[in-house]
Amino acid sequence: MAASNIRKKKHYLYSSIVEAQYHGHSFLLKLVFVSNRGNKNKYLVLATTQTKLSSEEIIQLYGRRWQIKTYFKTSKQYLALDKSQVQSYDG
């Protein structure tokens, strides 16, 4: 199969590595600006200290994290898991 000249669509608007400071400590952050699915006129900023990751990898990791977060929120809301307590590993 011949290689295609079609360029893949970029899933982010811009990315940059910046120096940040917190409580007197300096560290590098990679910022990835992505368009907001709900409102194309707005964007989200994803931040990580893993500066060697590509912008696409960062977007994928945040996507997975968001799926896990919404799963637990839904579980708590509809299955009342936030009201149950387990005293031991065996239940």
Automatic annotation (TrEMBL):
<dbReference type="InterPro" id="IPR002559">
    <property type="entry name" value="Transposase_11"/>
</dbReference>
<dbReference type="GO" id="GO:0003677">
    <property type="term" value="F:DNA binding"/>
</dbReference>
<dbReference type="GO" id="GO:0004803">
    <property type="term" value="F:transposase activity"/>
</dbReference>
<keyword id="KW-0808">Transferase</keyword>
<dbReference type="GO" id="GO:0016740">
    <property type="term" value="F:transferase activity"/>
</dbReference>
<dbReference type="Pfam" id="PF01609">
    <property type="entry name" value="DDE_Tnp_1"/>
</dbReference>
<dbReference type="InterPro" id="IPR012337">
    <property type="entry name" value="RNaseH-like_sf"/>
</dbReference>
<feature type="domain" description="Transposase IS4-like">
    <location>
        <begin position="12"/>
        <end position="90"/>
    </location>
</feature>
<protein>
    <submittedName>
        <fullName>Polynucleotidyl transferase, ribonuclease H fold</fullName>
    </submittedName>
</protein>
<dbReference type="GO" id="GO:0006313">
    <property type="term" value="P:DNA transposition"/>
</dbReference>
